[in-house]
Structures are given as structure tokens and as C-alpha cells.
Amino acid sequence: MIRPAHGAGLPIAPRAGTIDDIRREDDKRGYERDETDSFRQLVAGLVVDGDRRAGSAGRHARRTLAEMSPGYKRQPVLLLTRPLTFRSTSIAANQACTSCHGAGGKTVDTSSDGVSRQHWQSCGACSGSGAAR
């Protein structure tokens, strides 16, 4: 009869092994330096090869979106709309802010060099509520 080790009630459960334990610990840490370095080396090699091929054809490799697709107009990533305004029963709340005319702010366009940038800027006079104070 086989008896369990001293002080143990049940025999030890079988394990997958040391290699699987190491692999699990490695996966918990995520990408490691050697993995990202090898990926960067691969990409750098592809870039050099692309530059060489383009040069031998009398061209240069396209690097920017404007070079790859001339005339392409990007859609803005996010368009913010004016916030919803809720009417209150008080008389002052029903009157629109004189600075933003009840919108609560405005969309500011800071586009340049073919890149569209828009963001919402809240009204300072009404703190973005759209109601007169």
C-alpha cells in the first residue's frame, strides 16, 4: 500500500511540468524586450528592402498618407455635438446665455497641414449650461 507523504491527506496532483509553468509566467509578463527588438529588426529590414526596390525603379518609398493617397480627405475621428439643454421652471434658466446663445459652448477648429482637429469648448459665461446667469 502507498501512503501519502508525512502530514498530507491526499497524494500530490499531477502537474503539466516545469516548461508549462515557465511559459505561463512568461505570458503574464507580456511582450519582452527581445520580442519587440526582433519585431523592430524585421520591420527595419522590410523598410530597407522597400527603399532599395523603390530606388532601383527610380522612385522613393511613400511614407505619409498624403504621398500614398494624394487628395484623400480624412474624416474627423470624433465630432462633438452641442450638449442637450433641459428647461427648468425658473425664469432665468429659460433665458439663453448671451455669449453662446444657449449652445453651452462652441466647436473650435484647429485644423492645419491637412489634418482636421475639432474639439468642444464650453462657454465660460454659463459654465456650459447654455442658460443665462
Automatic annotation (TrEMBL):
Region (Disordered): 106-133
Biased composition (Polar residues): 108-121
Full protein name: DnaJ-class molecular chaperone
Organism this protein belongs to: Streptomyces clavifer
